[in-house]
Amino acid sequence: MARISFLLFCLVAQVAVTARVSFDAWFEDRTLRLDYIFSGDSVNQHIALDEMLSLPYWAGRHNNLDSLALFGNGQIYVRDAGTQQLIYATSFSTLFQEWQHTPEAAVKVKAFENCFMVPMPRKPVNVTVELADSHQRVTSSLTTYVDPSDILIRRTDNYTVYPHSCVLRSGSEARCVDLAIVAEGYREDQMGLFREDAQKFCDQLFNHEPYTHLKNRFNVVAVAVPSRDEGASIPSQNIWKETALGASFDTFYSDRYLTTLHVKRLNNVLTGIPFDQIVVLVNTDKYGGGGIYNLYMLASAHHAMSLPVCVHEFGHSFVGLADEYDYGDGTDYYHKDVEPWEKNITTLKDFKSKWADMIEEGTPLPTPNSDDKKIQYTRVGLFEGAGYMKKGVYRPAQECRMKINDVPAFCPVCQRAIKQMIYFVTE
Q1: Which one, of 377, 380, 352, 354, lies nearest residue 365 by Cα?
Q2: pTM higher than 0.70, yes or no?
Q3: Which domains, from first to last, does the chain contain?
């Protein structure tokens, strides 16, 4: 009887914890958009609140509200102002923090735009945004008191909504990953081409497991945002284009790194359209792209390898997967005394938390490469060289879509991480 009572108590306690954060009790079916400016140099970080907006829909998760799917390079915590109870949490990465590791950051101070979405609270809350360094130590933090009745929170209900069309509709926003594909560098007369490109991206993405069998957990819309000019800027060739989102190659002086620094402009064109993930297709045949966790994925649409690149970059932006290749130089973004937060690389600091359970008994560790192409992306092991580092960081498979474009699939570890993220968002 005592054991039954104890188990009953644990069950009740578990239910109480699970029900602790009810979406309807704490939030409206609206979005609070928080715009921040992150600034600094290689050693300094500053956070400033720029603006708050109220959007007419909430397309994010309705469960797991006070949990983090990943630690990320930054976190946002929403707490009830009266009790300090945590009622929502999310994580992200930023271009600013990436830039801090560049040579330019050692000699310049720069500022970067950031937009974050949280559900609109019914009562006053404290919103805390934290930035962490590569040792996963919080280096900057800003807490803002937010009263949802504040007259200076800009309501966007009557804003112009850009033309958008449904590419895939699987269910309600609360039960699906809501993906917005945005046109960049397409003129008004090229929107038919853009819609074709959006469909090609979806066909490619859902041809990869586990997206294939979980396709019914996605909604996808194509947002037709016209540009005056076609393509994207290429500063290294003195080519400057006037486009809707200001996309540009040569980000951080890397010729194939294609991004936009105009994050507010990107989010503004999505006003009135439910989304929780952004894909930007750029009307160019030059190779390039970029993906930042919980910010956006952006890639060229017409290079021969564009579709594989898009799937790779979406692995960054949606799942927070790390690059599994190395530069063969002295890059030291990861540290042996810290386990990376990305699920597909390890420094062995806490390997048990990664894919140790997926390695077959008898597999040599570290694992040597094989000439057998049949097992290069299916055999799980411990392969040295990942996260841009040749030594000290390990990947789970010899080859993977997160390593090279020629591989037709994600490795089993990345597939599991993708599946976990989809479930986290939709269940």
Answers
A1: 380
A2: yes
A3: 23-155 (2.60.40.3250), 164-319 (3.40.390.10), 363-426 (no CATH)
